[in-house]
């Protein structure tokens, strides 16, 4: 029992050390171990912003291995299921944002260089990733707003995405390499109504995608309502939306006052 407790404490301490960006990276860290841990984090990303931030912090902690970690991102994008690819796409925005804040622009430059390859992996041109087209657009717009991507690049990519956004957007209806198989791997079990024998997502993956999309939409709605408490932006917006007071407003106010007076007299 004591050995199990010590092992658990050791593992928790190791994980906390991985995500501690304030501490100096281990100069003796094994590159293979760093790559394996980073790969594991990418494979276990979910809809929470925390998981993306932790993985981005880990990458920046070992920034001297940035080229190897960047190749790891591309590798996982091309090997995993479409759900995981969507999660990695959201992670890329967090990574570029944090890299800018910490003034480590190598990650940003490599992502700018390989953005077309990233898009091809997340939303392949064969239509198998049609459910991820909206994800790609949302992340690319976020990167453009942060001045990571040029507007011209966004226009070029959008021209490609229009041709790929042809299948039903729901992941349950999107055929293709959704079970961790590459785009060139065909499924041998034929299914009626499916070209090339490509099948649907399994039930677990469908439920996972629905839940993750629900979580992201929830956070998006929260951010829409967020306002800066230090300025009068919300007051100005409401003031602009209110119409000018007219004769009808005075008449309505007079009628409401008369109704209240009658209720008070009846009591």
Summary?
The chain is 64% helix and 0% strand.
Radius of gyration: 25 Å
Overall helicity: 55-70%
Task: Spell the H/E element sequence.
Answer: HHHHHHHHHHHH
The percent range for strand residues is: under 5%
The stretches of 5 or more residues where confidence is low (pLDDT under 50) are 7-16, 18-23, 173-199
Mean pLDDT: 78
Total number of helical segments?
Answer: 12
Biggest sheet statistics:
none
Molecular shape: elongated
Number of strands: 0
Helix- and strand-based class?
mainly alpha
Instruction: Give the N-to-C terminal Cα separation.
Output: 74 Å
Would you give an account of this structure?
By secondary structure, the protein is an all-alpha fold. It is 64% helix and 0% strand. It contains 12 helices and no strands. Helix 3 crosses helix 5 and helix 8 runs antiparallel to helix 9. The chain is elongated and about 85 Å long. About 16% of the residues have low confidence.
Keywords, separated by commas or semicolons:
267 residues
What's the helix and strand layout?
Blueprint: H1 2-18, H2 31-43, H3 49-61, H4 66-79, H5 82-101, H6 106-113, H7 115-122, H8 133-145, H9 151-164, H10 203-225, H11 233-241, H12 247-266
């Amino acid at each position: 029992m004591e050995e199990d407790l010590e092992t658990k404490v050791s593992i928790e301490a190791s994980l906390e050390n991985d995500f501690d960006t304030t501490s100096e990276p281990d100069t003796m860290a094994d590159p293979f171990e760093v790559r394996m841990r980073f790969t594991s984090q990418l494979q276990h990303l979910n809809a929470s912003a925390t998981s993306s931030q932790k993985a981005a912090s880990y990458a920046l902690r070992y920034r001297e291995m940035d080229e190897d970690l960047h190749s790891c991102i591309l590798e996982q994008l091309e090997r995993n299921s479409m759900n995981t690819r969507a999660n990695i796409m959201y992670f890329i925005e967090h990574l570029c944002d944090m890299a800018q804040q910490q003034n480590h622009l190598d990650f940003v430059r490599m992502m700018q260089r390989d953005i077309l390859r990233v898009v091809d992996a997340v939303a392949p041109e064969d239509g198998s990733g049609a459910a991820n087209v909206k994800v790609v657009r949302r992340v690319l717009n976020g990167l453009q707003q942060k001045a990571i991507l040029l507007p011209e690049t966004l226009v070029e990519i959008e021209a490609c995405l229009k041709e790929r956004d042809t299948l039903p957007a729901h992941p349950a209806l999107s055929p293709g390499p959704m079970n961790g198989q590459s785009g060139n791997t065909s499924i041998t079990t034929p299914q009626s109504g499916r070209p090339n024998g490509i099948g649907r997502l399994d039930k677990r993956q469908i439920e996972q995608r629905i839940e993750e999309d629900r979580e992201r939409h929830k956070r998006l709605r929260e951010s829409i309502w967020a306002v800066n408490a230090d300025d009068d932006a919300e007051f100005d917006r409401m003031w602009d939306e209110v119409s000018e007071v007219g004769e009808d407003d005075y008449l309505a106010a007079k009628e409401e006052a008369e109704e209240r007076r009658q209720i008070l007299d009846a009591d």
